[in-house]
Amino acid sequence: MKKGKEVLIWLLKCFVAGIAAVVILSVFSLFYYNHGIRRTSETGATDYSWENKFHSVGYEGFAWGINDANGYNNAYMLDKEDIDILLMGSSHMNAYNVPQKNSVSYLLNHMMKTSDMGYGVYNIGMEGHTFYMCSDNLKNALETYSPQEYVIIETRSVKLSMERMEEVLTGTRKKTPAFDSGLIYYMQKVPYFCLLHKQIRDMCGLNDISLAENNDDTANETDNNDFGELKNTTLDYNTQLNRYMENIAKEASSYNVKLLVFYMPNTCINDDGTVGTAGNSQDIAEFAAVCKDYGIEFLDMSGIFLENYRQNYELPFGFSNTEAGKGHLNRRGHELVANALFDKIMEIEGK
Asked: What is the helix (H) or strand (E) element at residue 2, kind and residue range?
């Protein structure tokens, strides 16, 4: 009887110690890794948005901020009727890794508001949202936010996947689940469990940095060579790409907005100290040509990233607490993209 009581007391101590440890670790995690909780988007503008208001990051860059009522990262507050430009993209546009006032959306908003155009920019960039996901959600996004002038979409690849394009064209793409109910939902409310989940993903090679570098499911050989002869494969790919880009161009045109797609390639440091960018020049040219055919404005950030490195030795990706040139856009990267988008729109407007 006495031994059983001692075991019970020991188990109780372990339980209390465990709870205390989780609480302490959760306080740390609240500032180190607090992406928050996904919720299924009611509008379909994105597959999901953020339920939480506060977010903070200390593992890749150092930043914190407050999400807006719709669950998106917008420090520059706008009423719906003031939205002239809608910005769509991945975790780079979600911009959790830099302070809110250093993000593409905030910087572009500031430049637009202080220019003769006075356009307002609203950002619905969301973690994990590839070019395919943004394309698939484009109609709902335009319906929901009704931008008056432009919709801007980020892409990390110009050589698209046949399979992913087909899913969007046929309406068979599966929405990414948000896990906003059940046990997993409530476990996400404990910050340390979210960090633990990230660490497990790190061990499996599915961490956020890897996703940031490959978040567009860049087409590989098997995507584009399932049809036998290379000549026929190329013909099929070009046909599919034309169908795809024509489709999103029509969506934008039906809402009387101009579509601008910007390409943001990965960077790599070569053995001789120079920097290169991913992306084949022929693929970029072909993608740009298709965009032109359907009235889509195209911006390639490759040359801008390289020129900035030649002049300033600055990389657009990577932070002081991560590998140089890897992962998400840093402050300089956001600034380069925002400046390039502003210049592109000024060029389109003839100013």
From this structure: helix 2-32
Which residue ranges of the chain lie beneath pLDDT 50?
208-213, 215-231
Contact 51, 37 (CB under 8 A): yes
pLDDT score of 224 = 36
- Give the separation between CA 313 and CA 225, rounded to whole angstroms: 39
Residue 344: alpha-carbon gap to chain centroid: 21
Alpha carbons 86 and 260: distance in angstroms, whole number? 10
Q: Of 169, 345, 158, 157, whose CA–CA distance to 257 is shortest?
A: 345
DSSP category for residue 174: P
pLDDT score for 31: 81
How many residues does this entry show for the chain?
351
**pLDDT value at residue 1:** 62
**Residue 231 to residue 234: CA distance in whole angstroms:** 5
Beta bridge partners, 261, equal 153, 298
Q: Is the dihedral of CA 114, 115, 118, 120 positive or negative?
A: negative
Through-space distance between the first and last CA atoms of the chain, rounded to whole angstroms: 88
pLDDT for the residue 232: 52
Distance CA 51, CA 64 (A): 16
Which pLDDT value is given to residue 246?
98
Residue 263: strand, helix, or coil:
strand
Amino acid letter for position 190: V
- If we measure between CA atoms, which residue out of 342, 351, 291 comes closest to residue 85? 342
CB-based burial label for 166 (10 Å; 0-12, 13-18, 19+): middle
- Tell me, what's the pLDDT at 34? 86
Measure Cα distances from 84 to 75, 81, 113, 117, 252 in Å.
Answer: 16, 8, 11, 10, 13
Q: CB under 8 Å to 110, separation ≥6 — which residues? A: 76
Q: At what angle do helices 281-293 and 230-254 cross, to 10 degrees?
A: 40
8 A C-beta contact, residue 158 and residue 287? yes
| Contact status, residue 51 vs residue 151, Cβ threshold 8 Å | no
